[in-house]
Amino acid sequence: MEEKTETVHLQPVAEPAKDGVPASFADDEDYDPHEHRQVNRPTNDFETLVHLLKCSLGTGILAMPQAFARSGLITGIISTIIVGALCTYCLHVLVRSQYDLCKRLRVPLLTYPESMSAALTRGPPALRALARPSALAVDIFLVVYQLGICCVYIVFIAENIKAMVDDYYVMDVKIHMVIILGPLIAFNCIPNLKILAPFSTLANLITFVGLGIVLYFLLGTEKKSQTPLDLWGSYKTYPLFFGTILFALTAVGVVIALENNMKTPKSFGKPFGVLNVGMTFIVLLYIAVGAIGYVFCVEKCSDSVTLDLPQNSWVAMSVKAMFAVAIFISYGLQCYVPVDVVWSGYLRPRLLQSHASQPKLVASEYALRIALCLLTFVFAVSIPRLGLFISLFGALCLSALGICFPAMMEMCLSWADAGATGRGRMRRLKDWLLFIFGIVGLVVGTATALLAIVESFM
């Protein structure tokens, strides 16, 4: 997103509780948060849909052929539809819960961590002590996920550059990572999203053109492998598929920002609104790339489908260069999120409390940007496994951010509305099932990815 929306920070609840529900959460049907939002240059429905689509076309979709190789063709198609529907539903739950909390608190906007904290504050008594830690947990998962994306991007850029230059001079992929480190740090030190906006537009254009060329090669080139297709896959590798598909489909932070920045936010979650239309198109596109890429490569699918294109074609080589440039630009945009969370939420307030001077504040922010860039570089060099990185961070972070936390928020809101009675029992049961499913996906997917990473070094 090019524009940042203004966020009202939630204050601690101090009013006495009544019937187990804090008084400050009293309903007020006259207050509509959407009417009180002040957004600079809000987007219309079509612009929001375009933003949603372009934010979903990155390394995740390029890893779909390998994901299908781990799940099997039929299992991959069915599972992508199911997981896509589940992710879309959980995003609806998250947006709906945030709106309800804003309405009750009489504020126009709440961040994801603030919403999580507010929901637990009004939930069952046993969960209220977790209100403040839950906000920290959301921030941690967001930061880890975004830094994980940056690690994936470094590996992706280096592997595609290596594929382009190996015919002329062979170097280890880690050497390529060292070469791009300086430019990455310099690009990550750009502090303003407005400056990054033109680069973002260029990256989006390159990505769309590159993806079209990739599909052209997959459909018009002789198959890379003649091995029979695996239709059903194996339960042993399925968790890796699950992590990859979550990484590709679940854009929690993007969805919240898009809905917050809309001119007509009520149309976002309608049956034929932006979210459903966008996610339907995204799921179909991911199935197309995954299935076509898997039929082309079968068991020889690389971590990114760009690495499976013919080496003797200048057009295929240009696609690698295009995606390398696009992902390089996107690195600065993705790293902006953890920098903003850590700097604005934690580091800057502490420095202001210590009466730090303006030069020290500026130096500290740049030091943070460089440190986070170096951190992602160290992880990428230590574990240069693109596909496994995608599965790991998808299972670890997005199972929590995209499934567990939204289910818990709705569960707490439903409990508060029904009190200790049986009203809303089916909704709470559904939320418990979603939460358990997310936890299982997190544990099994993360463990499988970590085990695969360890085995890859043996």
What fold name goes in the CATH topology slot? Answer: Amino acid/polyamine transporter I
Oligomer: single chain
* Number of alpha- plus pi-helical segments: 16
**Series of H and E elements:** EEHHHHHHHHHHHHHHHH
Task: Please characterize this protein's 3D structure.
This protein is mostly helical and 458 residues long. It has a single domain, classed as Amino acid/polyamine transporter I. Helices cover 71% and strands 1% of the residues. It is built from 16 helices and two strands. It has helices spanning 45-54, 59-62, 64-71, 73-105, 112-121, 125-128, 131-165, 173-188, 193-220, 238-249, 252-260, 274-297, 314-353, 358-382, 386-418, 425-456; strands at residues 17-18, 21-22. The chain has a two-stranded antiparallel sheet with strand order 1-2. α4 (73-105) packs across α5. It is globular. The model is unreliable at 1-27 (pLDDT under 50).
